[in-house]
Amino acid sequence: MNDSPTTGAPRWGYALLLRLHFYAGLLVGPFIFVAALSGSLFAMTPQIENWLYQTELTTNTTGNPQPLADQITAARAHIGADATLAAVRPAPAERQTTRVMFLVDGLQPFEHKAVFVDPVNLGIHGELVVYGTSGTLPFRIWIDYVHRHLHLGEPGRYYSELAASWLWLVALGGLALWWRRRSVVKNGQITRNSSLRNWHSRIGLVLLVAFLFFSVTGLTWSKWAGANIAELRTQLNWATPGLDTQLDAVSSEVSHSHGEHAGHEVAGPVPGSGDNASTYDAVLERARRAGIDASILEIRPGTTPERAWVVREIDRSWPTQVDMVAVDPRSMAVTDHVKFENFPLAAKLTRWGIDAHMGILFGLPNQLLVAACALGLCVLIVLGYRMWWLRRPARTAHTRPNPRRVFAELRKASPLALVTMAGIAVALGLFAPVMGVSLLVFLMVDAILSLTGSATKSAN
Prior knowledge:
Layout: H1 11-43, H2 46-52, H3 54-57, H4 68-79, E1 84-89, E2 98-103, E3 111-117, E4 124-131, H5 138-149, H6 157-186, H7 195-206, H8 208-219, H9 224-235, H10 277-289, E5 297-300, E6 309-313, E7 324-327, E8 334-338, H11 345-358, H12 364-391, H13 406-410, H14 415-431, H15 433-459
Antiparallel strand pairs: 1-2, 2-3, 3-4, 5-6, 6-7, 7-8
Helix pairs in contact: 1-5, 1-6, 1-12, 4-10, 6-8, 7-12, 8-11, 14-15
């Protein structure tokens, strides 16, 4: 890391940016690499999942489907009386099975045990653990957990937040470094550029927008920065509208505007709340008359007797169908209705962004694009490590490396520049605490190396 242009911006600024880019790439690179590689695998596995679980997902029978009540009864007889009925996803098309989902002991949050029922002859096609609204099956769940938290549970989420927090900053820093070198090379002051750096820069430039997109959308899932983003969206009235499931003492059909309501994302029903199988048919029929017309949908019973049942569309491909209604199971009155077309623009963009991040918004083209960009990021990281290895400072008995240190460059900055940089660092650290803590670690390591290097130099 020895070549530093000397025209334009202050030399210390270029050297500082170069050093921080190096630190972030070297220390955070492995986390970004794992996130990118697992993300590319996740994007490309829907077809593999459909092949692996063909027995559970499909059927050869044709004809009119049996009532949901009969399908639920068949699933209940298969799984036993101890499991709590959590939700039902009717067969979305002919020759596909219905998912009857139960809460059972030993599963992770947002996981259910799904029993796959032939909607025509009520045959049981097996049972599998499913996860989340996307309904991913065991193969993709395993990959998703690597991407999300390395199978370490809640503590592992720090890894993915670290990767997402630094990706945008490293990408923009790389852009600034490329532009600085480009302007100097254009003036004829630097003519030597390695092939590795050229490829590193080209890949970074081509995929810059994708990296920023991955970083921003990834942060919305993170623990600390994600909570701050959710709070900011709420303050700006950009939050996704929720569904009010609270029932009045006297049930009546009402029509009102929807806003920020409680009761949308719920942990699941209380035992016994959804065991009246015949109610599912009636609630679905009422939701259809209220405008829920997607083929891919889910019916959830109320979490308590005072809560309405929810029927929601879960088709997140294009066009997005995520409307939902709350239905009072006692009177079959629709008590609230949320339509995607009425979402604030920011909420729509968030929905589309997350679905594009997962590779499900536009089907196979979206999958291929996500996988290609993620694998490109992996290549970029490998090239960066190769560049560092080839150009690492040599250490011999007579010479010692003298790499630039962050604190050495900071001492050259003006007081105003130092205050400005400190303010930005504190603001970023408060908004994205994992990045703030890791930046502090970088600076501490750099300070120790600087002091060690100074002490060694004095001793010699």
